[in-house]
Specification:
Blueprint (H helix, E strand, L loop, with lengths): L1 H6 L13 E4 L2 E5 L6 H10 L3 E2 L5 H11 L5 E6 L8 E2 L23 E4 L9 E4 L8 E3 L1
Amino acid sequence: SEVDLLVFGIILNCTLCGVGWKKFDGNCYFVSKLSRTWAESRLDCISRGADLVVINSREEQVFLNGLLGRSKDVWIGLSDHIKEGTWVWVDGTPLTTEFWQNEQPNNLGNQDCVEIQTKSSRLGTWNDVSCSLQQPWICEK
């Protein structure tokens, strides 16, 4: 049985994501039901052995848009709070693949953190907002 296999440390080419997590392309994703600031959201992900999501491809963005549907807007692991205009992922990698909404990012009133806005049906759903806004988030491990 699967339990016996786990006792001996054997996992057959699969990642066990855990309850409440969704698997895509070898990674696991968790969408919170609570609302927190960007920093608090990141701490929650870290406490789960993960971090805020880093989006590396069009396929991953499409998966996340489908996963979220028309739910609340959610935090992702992208910010420019260290240096204005220099967008960096939580894992330290620079921004290369972008899915900004039209006319975003606009830094309207010190907006240093990025959300996926779920009301958009287009691929480009990113928006920069104030990091102190409280909303759900996506963890990735």
